[in-house]
UniProtKB/TrEMBL annotation:
SUPFAM superfamilies: alpha/beta-Hydrolases. Residues 58-141 form the AB hydrolase-1 domain. This is AB hydrolase-1 domain-containing protein. Gene3D superfamilies: alpha/beta hydrolase. It comes from Phaeosphaeria nodorum (strain SN15 / ATCC MYA-4574 / FGSC 10173) (Glume blotch fungus).
Length: 156
């Protein structure tokens, strides 16, 4: 069931840019028992929750028999609040890593009840989120594992 996921309603979600996503929601999937050490594994740019499943399984690095794996989807990926599923919100507001991680933190702590995570890991834009987790909530996890992240400014 790769396309199985749930959503958590965030309500009117204020953004660091000053904008807001009305009736915002974050899509997520969990694997494993909530009593196990939590691993947060966010999606990357254009990645869906099912795209993250390649690293999960009893024979994989993220083994749901050993870890409680939480896969939150980025705003804008088509599963969480996105231009494609909020057609009346034009233009779609500017969303930063800060906003995504704040939404993920609310999902993980308030909705799922996780008090501490073993790790936050991600690759590509998911890796960028690991750095944001480390700066925004440095005491929440034991470690981060950013994979394949190019932290270079291409704006010029």
């Amino acid at each position: 069931m790769a396309d199985d996921y749930q959503t958590y309603k965030l309500g009117n979600f204020s953004l660091s840019s000053g904008g807001e996503i009305p009736d915002a929601f974050i899509a997520y999937k969990t694997l494993g028992d909530p009593s196990l050490p939590a691993i947060i594994y966010p999606t990357w740019y254009s990645g869906s929750i099912s795209d993250n499943l390649w690293l999960t399984g009893s024979d994989k690095t993220l083994n749901p028999e050993k870890y409680y794996i939480i896969i939150p989807a980025l705003f804008g990926n088509g599963q969480s609040s996105s231009p494609s599923n909020m057609p009346d919100l034009r233009p779609f507001p500017n969303v930063l890593f800060y906003d995504n991680v704040r939404a993920q933190y609310e999902l993980v702590t308030k909705h799922l009840g996780v008090k501490h995570a073993r790790a936050v890991l991600g690759w590509s834009m998911g890796a960028g989120q690991t750095y944001q987790w480390a700066t925004q909530y440095p005491e929440f996890m034991d470690l981060i594992a950013p994979l394949l992240w190019l932290s270079e400014d291409f704006s010029a």
